[in-house]
Specification:
902 residues; alpha+beta; ten-stranded mixed beta sheet; eight-stranded mixed beta sheet; 32 helices; 27 strands; 48% helix; elongated
């Protein structure tokens, strides 16, 4: 029996092992593969080539967790007390609010985290394997270390492979490394410390073969693959509380302490100083507790978030976690992947370096739109012979195809670099079908890493033949004796131009041609000698999205730092970063990150905007380093390599179109248009949502403060109780579901994207908000007691006086709604009635509720109320106007002091 191959924790560094050593370590012959018996034994030893299932929480557990919130505990406590006191109406209303809140949260967040399943879905389902000297197509889950796997163009790599033999192999590793171009593979060992993107002798599970064929040795399956390791990272990352969750928790604790302290003082004073009967003082304290608790707050917050979610969905941003809407408004740093997020993930020729001049090439992506400029002036492509020559070579010496689909636009079939060359030819006005028919290809030498070029032979139907050449510039220059203008080749001049293009982050290709003997029908390597004419060089880049450049500028204007983290080479990353408006002078590479401890990385992460050659672990460390410095981090990305960092970030943002399932399922927000600019809009909407939550608090809490103040004043002054616990609950509920809800539809404050991000430690109720709440609460107490005592003085019943007091509170809230629609801006403006039509409709609805409350006999019996006359309504309206003017006066004072936000 063959010796056992190394166990995973004993495994060699496969990318550094020579082919023969790798085969020996896994006890397998490259020509025959494993026997069926040995494969079965290893399958039992190592297990299937699949990621382990993750136990998910049941729906009941997820529903129960909706109640795991301090504010909910306070509400349930209040419901229990009212239930014990047999105040069943109040008790069931509170319980109903809590249950509705839980249902909304359960439905909105009902999708369980599926990141690991998405990673698992990236694994190939079948694999062509060599066993006992025969080819077999098997389920990829049955692959074991030591299997010999055969790869061909278009195949998904089924496991981590040490390549044994390659033929023109290029693998698209963008989802794993962020590298925008397919990687050329060979069998030469790489350095022990080489990052994933530089391990050219390896093909990793989940990547896709773009071109060529290969034979590889399985060295990692299941969890021991790179994708499996990323899946483990995702599983290890703990989901973070959102800023809103933390602020609501803190607020709930403060309310709880306040209620207990004030309730205890009121109970002791009423019982032992005033000598109130035990039941009376106990009911008064319960009323105080009900008054102080904003029962509608959880529902209002959830509804505000849900409305924000709907608005963002209309703007191409789908929220997977409800509280993530507000989190976007709190972020201080956005870490973005480059490929497909800040760039188009479509290679584009941006420069054509011809023998006598350079041309700037317009347009982006594979869409053949755009023109040419020479020294800033437009150029007529059809009349430029040098451009036509290089465009002809780009068209004919090419295996890619561009197809136009009415729904999706221009789509590439083939290699991205060749797609960029085709687009160049189309922009130059060349007709693909006509030219390929008039100058058909007779023979070719495919691109191989050994000679680093591709050559094609063509004829013109009249016996004349010529050969075209495309490849690495240093190799093509060796084969050229003159340039397209007929001058002897000047390598130093061309090398200088190549260097300048490389500094700009461009990948450079050279194109050349030579005449062949008439009637030539075949070419071989012996024909490729130093006799070619250099037509020119082209500079290719994955261009930044124009909208991303504008979005980054807007984010920076709003006080956010944008950082780019990519698997690309440092020079490319720096060039793209500079074009995007980032500070790209000091790029930090993955190798440098490895050398830094966590404390040193925290400082460098803050000061650096561009990170290159970054692995999944590097991205995760960078996110955690920024969080350790107190930053709230949004991470954007589209590859499986982004999934761990997306989940670790305070908010993960994934691309919906070209992004992987792994990235989408690990994220809190998915951009359906794959547009970084949508993030700026989402940040804006997140700030609007938080503003509207603050406005809702600023609106609701004075009602609670006024009600609690009325009860406290009654206890401490021996005055009558102007309002009962049931009436308090009525006011809280009708104003919460009408007026507070209307604030969810408020538009943005004018300066919303000119403010700095909120400090993460800032409480939900700021000092300025506290002063406003206390001020309005005092106005509510004074006016409520005034109308209550006035009604009694008129000789009306206690029920009528209490009804007037309730209506005074509601009218006070109604007029205050129009104060609070802007933090400090004047309510006396032209859009006071048209800016938020929902507020008008909700105001009318509330008036309807109060008419029912005041005049319907059933409501009299439930809430112990009575009808009031027109004089009472006139006084209530007058006092309401006093509240409105008093609040506007305070806002005017704030504007004078330069205060614009709260």
């Amino acid at each position: 029996m063959p010796m056992n191959p190394p166990l995973p924790d004993q495994a060699p560094v496969w990318h550094a092992e020579p082919v023969e050593t790798a085969l020996t370590n896994l006890s397998v012959d490259a020509g025959t593969g494993l026997s069926h018996e040995e494969a079965s034994r290893r399958l039992e030893q190592y297990g299937p080539n699949a990621l382990p299932e993750v136990k998910r929480r049941s729906p009941w557990v997820r529903f129960a967790l909706q109640f795991h919130n301090p504010l909910i505990y306070v509400l349930l406590g209040a419901a229990a007390v009212t239930f014990i006191l047999q105040d069943y109406v109040d008790a069931w209303v509170i319980v109903g609010v809590v249950i509705i809140n839980a249902i909304i949260g359960f439905i909105q967040e009902g999708k369980a985290e599926k990141a690991l399943e998405a990673v698992r879905a990236m694994l190939a389902t079948h694999a062509m394997v060599l066993r006992a000297g025969e080819r077999h197509e098997i389920d990829a889950a049955l692959l074991v270390p030591g299997d010999i796997v055969l790869l061909e163009s278009g195949a998904k790599v089924p496991a981590d492979l040490r390549l044994l033999h390659v033929r023109n192999l290029r693998v698209n590793e963008a989802a794993l490394t962020g590298e925008s171009l397919p990687v050329e593979k060979n069998t030469d060992p790489a350095g022990v410390d080489s990052p994933i993107g530089d391990r050219t002798c390896m093909a990793y599970s989940g990547t896709v073969v773009s071109f060529g064929q290969a034979r590889g040795l399985v060295v990692g399956t299941g969890q021991t693959t790179e994708i499996g390791r990323i899946g483990s990272l995702v599983g290890e990352v703990q989901s973070l509380d959102t800023p809103l969750t933390r602020r609501l928790d803190q607020f709930a604790r403060q309310i709880t302490v306040f209620i207990l302290a004030v309730g205890l003082v009121a109970f002791l004073y009423g019982r032992y100083v005033r000598g109130m009967p035990l039941l009376d003082i106990f009911l008064a304290v319960v009323g105080l507790a009900v008054a102080a608790i904003p029962e509608g707050l959880p529902a209002v917050v959830t509804i505000v978030l849900a409305i924000g979610t709907r608005i963002m969905a209309r703007n191409n941003a789908v929220v997977r976690l409800l509280a993530a809407v507000e989190t976007l408004g709190s972020v201080t740093v956005i870490c973005s992947d480059k490929t497909g997020t800040l760039t188009r993930n479509e290679m584009t020729v941006v420069q054509a370096m011809l023998p006598d001049y350079d041309l700037e090439v317009g347009g982006v992506g594979y869409t053949p739109e755009g023109g040419f400029k020479r020294e800033g002036s437009p150029l007529e492509a059809e009349k430029d012979s040098a451009l036509q020559e290089i465009a002809l070579c780009a068209l004919l010496c090419n295996d890619a195809r561009l197809k136009h689909d009415g729904d999706t636009g221009w789509q590439l079939v083939g290699d991205p670099t060749e797609g960029a060359l085709l687009s160049l030819a189309y922009k130059a006005g060349l007709d693909h079908v006509g030219i390929t028919e008039s100058l058909p290809r007779i023979d070719e030498i495919p691109f191989e890493s050994e000679h680093r070029f591709m050559a094609t032979l063509h004829h013109d139907h009249e016996g004349r033949a010529f050969m075209l050449l495309k490849g690495a510039p240093e190799r093509v220059l060796e084969l050229c004796v003159q340039d397209g203008s007929g001058k002897p080749l000047d390598p130093a001049s061309w090398n200088k131009r190549m260097g300048e293009a490389a500094k700009a982050g461009q990948r450079v290709l050279a194109l050349a041609r030579t005449d062949m003997p008439a009637g030539a029908t075949a070419i071989s390597m012996s024909d490729v000698t130093a006799r070619f004419t250099l037509l020119g060089l082209v500079g290719i880049i994955d261009p930044p999205r124009e909208e991303a450049i504008a979005a980054i500028a807007e984010c920076q204007h709003a006080g956010l730092r944008v950082k780019m983290i990519t698997g690309d080479h440092a020079a490319t990353a720096a060039a793209i970063g500079q074009q995007l408006g980032l500070q790209a002078e000091h790029t930090l590479t993955g190798e440098a990150i490895e050398a830094l401890d966590d404390m040193a990385l925290r400082g460098r992460a803050l000061d650096t905007d561009v990170f290159a050659r970054a692995s999944p672990e590097h991205k995760l460390r960078l996110v955690k380093a920024l969080q350790a410095e107190g930053e709230l981090v949004a991470m954007t990305g589209d590859g499986v390599n982004d999934a761990p960092a997306l989940k670790a970030a305070n908010i993960g943002v994934a691309m919906g179109q070209k992004g992987t399932d792994a990235a989408r399922e690990a994220a809190d927000l998915v951009l359906t248009d794959d547009n970084f600019a949508t993030i700026a809009q989402a940040v804006r909407q997140g700030r609007v949502v938080f503003d509207n939550i603050k406005k809702s608090l600023l609106f609701m809490l004075p009602t609670n403060g006024g009600e609690a103040g009325v009860i406290l004043l009654a206890i401490f002054t021996e005055l009558g109780m102007p309002i009962t616990a049931g009436q308090i609950l009525w006011v809280n509920m009708v104003t919460a579901i009408t007026l507070a809800l209307a604030l969810a539809f408020e538009s943005a404050e004018p300066d919303i994207m000119k403010r700095s991000p909120r400090p993460p430690s800032e409480p939900l109720v700021t000092q300025l908000m506290g002063v406003r709440i206390a001020y309005v609460s005092l106005l509510m107490v004074i006016t409520t007691f005034a109308i209550f005592e006035w009604e009694l003085a008129r000789g009306n019943s206690l029920e009528a006086a209490r009804t007037a007091a309730v209506n005074m509170l509601v009218v006070g809230e109604l007029v205050y709604l129009f104060n609070v629609r802007n933090f400090t801006a004047s309510a006396f403006r032209r859009d006071i009635l048209t800016g938020n039509r929902i507020a008008l409709w909700m105001s009318l609805l509330l008036i309807g509720f109060q008419i029912l409350f005041t005049y319907v006999p059933f409501m009299h019996r439930v809430f112990h109320t009575a009808a009031i006359d027109a004089i009472a309504w006139a006084v209530i309206a007058a006092l309401g106007f006093v509240i409105f003017v008093a609040v506007e006066a305070k806002k005017a004072l704030m504007r004078r002091w330069g205060i614009k936000s709260m």
